[in-house]
Amino acid sequence: MTAVFAESATPSPGASGLPGDPTKGSQLFGSSGCSGCHGSNLEGGIGPKLNPIQNLGNTKNPLDSNYLIDTITNGLHGVGGFPAQMPPKGGNPALTSQDIADIAAFIIQTNSAGQAGLGPQELARSDVFWVSVAIFLMVMVTLLLSRYNMRWIDRRAAARRERERTG
User: Fold this and answer.
1) 142 or 78, higher pLDDT
2) Contact of 72 with 89, CB cutoff 8 Å
3) What percent of the chain has pLDDT over 90?
4) Is 74 exposed, middle or buried (0-12, 13-18, 19+ CB in 10 A)?
5) What is the helix (H) or strand (E) element at residue 101, kind and residue range?
6) CATH code (residue 39)
7) pLDDT confidence of residue 120
8) What's the Cα-to-Cα distance from 162 to each of 153, 158, 159, 167, rounded to whole Å?
9) pLDDT the model gives residue 117
């Protein structure tokens, strides 16, 4: 009797060097409450930034999958100067070990992509910069138009005076 093995089209977790599925981890990160402290773009807030990941001083490599899984599973407190502590499983006891591995894979993949999200301060600075540029450009256009308008008024007045003098 011969056994037939079917290969799945989707790679198994860990096939890419990640502890879980980053796509599922992304969904879990948003739905399980992680984003409440770490920001929807991993930009930080109450909790530390996760993209680029902030080293809190309790590990050499904060992107080590074992460190991330242990931190998510057991929580963290008294590290990095953050006033709040991270409860075990981020306060969501329904998370399974596979869910935690998927969230860790999402954090690792997001950091590997090299695209950090803007934090609230960086976003505000960017907004202020672009609003300032827009205001400056509007002032310059207004000045140019007013100078043109004044020249046009002067020409019309000169033409009217010339007509009155000759008329």
Assistant:
1) 142
2) yes
3) 43
4) exposed
5) helix 97-113
6) 1.10.760.10
7) 66
8) 14, 6, 5, 8
9) 60
Omega before 52 within 30 of 0, i.e. cis: yes
135 and 145 housed in the same domain? yes
Residue type, 69: I
* 6 found inside a domain: no
Q: Which of these three, 99, 117, 135, is where a domain ends? A: 117
My answer on whether 47 and 122 are in the same domain is: no
The pLDDT tens digits for 58-68 are: 889 999 999 99
Q: 104 with 122, same domain?
A: no
Q: The domain containing residue 39 runs over which residues?
A: 22-117
Domain co-membership, 109 together with 127: no
- Residue bearing the bigger pLDDT, 17 or 90: 90
CA neighbor of 18 nearest in space, from 85, 91, 113: 113
Q: Residues with Cβ < 8 Å from 5, sequence gap 6 or more?
A: none
Whether 49 is covered by a domain: the verdict is yes
- pLDDT (tens digit per residue) in 11-60: 344 446 889 999 999 999 989 889 888 888 888 888 888 888 888 888 89
Question: Does residue 95 carry a pLDDT above 90?
Answer: yes
Angstrom CA distances, 158 to 35, 49, 145, 153, stand at: 68, 67, 20, 9
Cα dihedral sign, 100-105-108-110: negative
